[in-house]
Design goal:
CATH class: Mainly Beta
Number of strands: 11
Mean pLDDT: 75
CATH superfamily: Protein of unknown function DUF4465
Order of helices and strands: EEEHEEEEEEEE
Number of helices: 1
Helix content: under 10%
Structural class: mainly beta
Strand content: over 45%
CATH architecture: Sandwich
Shape: globular
Largest sheet: 6 strands, antiparallel
Radius of gyration: 15 Å
Number of domains: 1
Low-confidence stretches: 39-47, 153-162
Length: about 160
């Protein structure tokens, strides 16, 4: 039986640009940039003062990957995505992999798939052991509230339940 959990990036550190530690919420994280504050960055200003989500932190970068710490499989259901620059139209590509082989790809565009501010994007990727978010430009983007389904044998543990 799987459970849907939300990864919020809260409680890692009081420092606004702290790295996400391996094992956080049952995943290992590789990012080009460290974690960022949603209330203090460009997303907050670009969206007219709206926070990305109700929490203080999100992942910010040119791209990042998440992999189950124990090597188990998981599903990625959705995530809140926002481009950093005001009026900057950036595609974000999401790729699911199993043992290094791509099994899922979805490209979202702010003009058609998500609005100028933070938007929850449906992903619907199942049974992967690695998931990657990749930006289309040199501008950063933010991701928060990643909904994952875990619970199969070997799946990550310790996630905050929805």
């Amino acid at each position: 039986m799987s459970h849907i959990n939300i990864i919020t990036f809260e409680g890692i550190s009081e420092e606004p640009r702290a790295a996400i530690p391996d094992g956080y919420q049952g995943f290992d994280w590789v990012s080009y940039d460290p974690m960022s504050e949603t209330y203090g960055g460009e997303v907050y200003a670009a969206t007219g003062g709206r926070a990305l989500t109700s929490g203080r932190y999100s992942v910010k970068g040119l791209g990042f990957r998440m992999k189950a710490s124990d090597g188990g499989k998981f599903d990625v259901r959705s995530a809140v995505i926002a481009a950093d620059g005001a009026g900057f139209a950036m595609d974000v590509t999401m790729v699911g992999q199993v043992s290094g082989t791509e099994v899922f790809r979805k490209l979202v565009n702010p003009l058609t798939d998500y609005g100028p501010g933070p938007t929850e994007v449906e992903i619907c990727c199942s049974g992967v052991d690695e998931f990657v978010f990749i930006g289309s430009a040199i501008e950063s983007f933010d991701v928060d509230n990643i909904k994952v389904a875990v619970g199969a044998p070997g799946a990550p543990r310790g996630l905050a339940a929805e």
